[in-house]
Amino acid sequence: MTQEVKATSATNDITDEATIMPTHSELAASGLSKRNQKFVYQAIELVENDGQYLSLIQKMETDLLEGQKVGKTAKQIYGTPAEALGMEAKAQETQSQGTVYSDFGYWDLAFDNMLTFLMLFSAMFGITLLFQKDASINAGAAGILALALTSICGGLLFALITKIMARRDLGRVLRVLSAILAFALWFLIYMLASVLPKVINPVLPGWVYLIVAVVAFAGFRFLRKKTGIVGGFMGGSQVSNKK
């Protein structure tokens, strides 16, 4: 029994020794160039000294050693350390199985669409008002209150449309009809907002709208970075790798 324990302990010691990653000094003595040593060590850091990657690291050393004999660089052979380990391929595979746009929360989608509409309409009105001095005469839709209502309602309704279209249990006809009704409601709100009196719906100078567009874009980018949302009505087929 004691001999079996000793044998098991010896086997474990051998296994532990076999899975120890190369150190800086060992890489320096391997014959690899300093650049190739750095490449291998970056790969070791990426796998956090995980022993299951030892054989791959050893193969990498051998390939780089053979490559440098004929003038091939690590970049020519492998690209990056992550590519050498197959990590980028795994990351792309994970991303392809990520979160579809419609899977995000309703309010995340609503704010995403609100900022999108605010950004686009503000940019459009700002450019129009800058180049057409008399555009404000019949530009009720460009009024600041109309812009706010159109963007807010558009964000709420388009988020609803996104959720409805993702509901396979509702049936295709019902989903399409619901989406059409929601879009029609948003268009009606847009038309009604455009006839609001100028007292409560003033048209501001074009440069103000351009500033609003820039601020909305900054908010849009911040929200997407925070939530991981990609796609939308301009690219709804995309997915995000953030759950």
TrEMBL record:
Keyword Membrane assigned: yes
A Pfam family assignment: DUF1129
Record bears the keyword ATP-binding: no
Residue spans crossing the bilayer: 114-131, 137-161, 173-192, 204-223
Keywords from the named record: Membrane, Transmembrane, Transmembrane helix
InterPro entries linked: DUF1129, MFS_trans_sf
Protein name: DUF1129 domain-containing protein
Organism from which the protein derives: Weissella coleopterorum
